Amino acid sequence: MSIYTPPANWFQKPKGAERLWVGLALIWCMIMFLAMPYWHFFGKQNSTGEGYKVTPAAYSQRVQQFIASNKVGDVNGMPVVEPAPGGDAYLQAQMWTWLPILKLRMGQTYRIHLSSMDLLHGFSLQPLNMNFMVLPGYDHVLTITPTTSGEFSIVCNEFCGVGHHLMSGRIIVEE
Amino acid sequence: MHAVVAVVFLLIGGIGAILLGLTRWPAVHLLDVNWYYRILTVHGLNMLIFWMLNFEMAVLYFACTTLLNSRLASAKAAWAGFILMVVGGIMVNIAVFTGTSDVLVTSYVPLKAHPAFYLGIILVAVGTLVCVINYFATIYIAKRDHTYEGTVPLVVFGATAAAIIAVVTLLHGAVTMIPTFLWSLGVIETIDAAWYRITWWGLGHMSQQVNVCAMVSIWYFLGTMTVGSKPLNQAVCRSAFVLYILFINVAAAHHILVDPGVSAGWKIWNTSYAMYLAVLASMIHGFTVPASVEVAMRKKGHKRGLFGWLAAAPWSNPGFSGFFLSLIIFGFGGGITGVTLGTQQINIMAHNTLRIPGHFHVTVVGGTTLAFMAVTYYVVPLFFQRDFLAKSWCRIQPWVFGGGITMAALGMSFAGSFGVPRRHWDIDFTGAQFAVGFDSAAHLWLAVLGVGAVVATTGLFMFILLVVGTVFFGRSNAGRPMEAWHTEQSVAESTKDENVAEDEDHEAPGTVVLALIFLLTFAVYYFANWKWLSDVWEVR
Lengths: 175, 540
Ligand SMILES: [Cu+2]
Known about the structure:
Chain A is α+β, with helices and mostly antiparallel strands and 175 residues long. Helices cover 24% and strands 38% of the residues of chain A. The longest helix of chain B is centred in the middle third of the chain and has 36 residues, at 264-299.
């Protein structure tokens, strides 16, 4: 039972509606093809994937140093740290906390570093819904400019063990 | 054999599905935290890998033996491959159920599972490779012995494309899983987390492309079986399959769009240039398949208006309704969301949120699984020579399943748009150091997900009961022609005038309208996402 054997002259050019559709589909794919490079040069949200190798121990040391020199307070025992506008800020992901709380200014640009001490974690900023990966052994640098103010939650959205659903942090943005 | 085992894995995955759906529905929140992640691992592996792969092996063997009238190259190799796949699947299930391997489908290092987990996956992969090689050998024998005439049918061509992609997938699997297995044994000290993600997705995403290829082949097969349709243009359909083979592997890059250490240029190149050529292929199939149905229906006299052919289609035949629902759900649901979420910058708003499972449940479940179910309604009477039991239940099964999964996927997608993470036990963050409040609409959408999961698994259990019941208790149809699903035209008639030249009347105005609606929906969704993206913080 052969379902359907094509005739010998099966190799033919498409025509009519099918030809029209192949053309339209190709044009649409070209539009989408151009959208990404367009946004890369003219849009403001691009994750360039800037990353450097770093050992967890070395990264942890930088985080401690950053906290010690920029700390401005405490919430629930978690240090609140205010980096200089334009400067570097460090966040450390570890089962199941985000260290420290960052205090930023709206409209200023920061280089926010992300790394993990143990497993993979997901940096998910809510309710904005911006999501980035945090990998052990890599320093992931995001050059971020907050354009809205208020209190934002950091949620972990990559499975990292049974306490995964408790892993929350804070970013405070002042006008 | 493969199909039978596939259904067993489907059952395990299905039980998992209902438990998970009821856990993510916040008002029910059924499982405890340990069992949630364990069942999530079980569900993903059984559904995405063991059910799909086993069914695909059945499709491959069907294509190369039945469709080409050939004998299998090696029965021994077929058994060896089969046993490896089953043993591997059982090993993985045991490793997870005993609580030593709660690592989810992706098992990202340095999250560590029991060595039996990785070894089981390797066995499944080796078994699959043996089957695929056996398939190629059978094609070779069929060609040598001239068991078929002329060019191979399109279904076989598509199956071969799937098989080629499967081989490349399995090579990635070996590169990822063998070092990881050694690492779990302590032979290798560390595995780089970024390296693992890249190679794993070479395996993980491509395996889904095997599913797409198999699904599209089945669409063509079912089009012929149910309404006697023929591909409009063989050259176009075949080129589209070739596009899949060439481009789909590099498109797997869209899983690491927000990872460190991978440059933007590389991401843009792989996800735009490569992905869109594969998308083009899907868009071509998405037109050709319904157009060929329309042409066939019109030829039978259903010429009224733009959509008279669609209304007159044999919707009460589960082989047809399953096939056409699969086409619609996959195209409108899966295709549009997939391309949009895979856009480098838009991915920022979607990565690891419930939007991602929202997307792949309409592709792999509403699309592929439904197509596999639909083809089963033809294959069981053919191979087991039994008539289906409870035909009226068969007729509604695709609707229940397709409707349920569409609802579940909508629930996931919208909850994900509100930022709800995937793979997460408690979005209320009870007891967390800092409270996290999700929009109350997110809770509503999670309830939609829960209800959808219940409906879809009902459809799934109906399917399993009907198939198993029929195989064991169905009335024998030996010696009689296969009972058609009361469609106006039997299978024998539909393939009668096979060799009529293809370029008769090709007009499919209804499909043109459908396709334009599709394109419009696509464009609106796509640009709406760019608009939402422009509202989030600036990031470089
Ligand atoms: Cu985490």
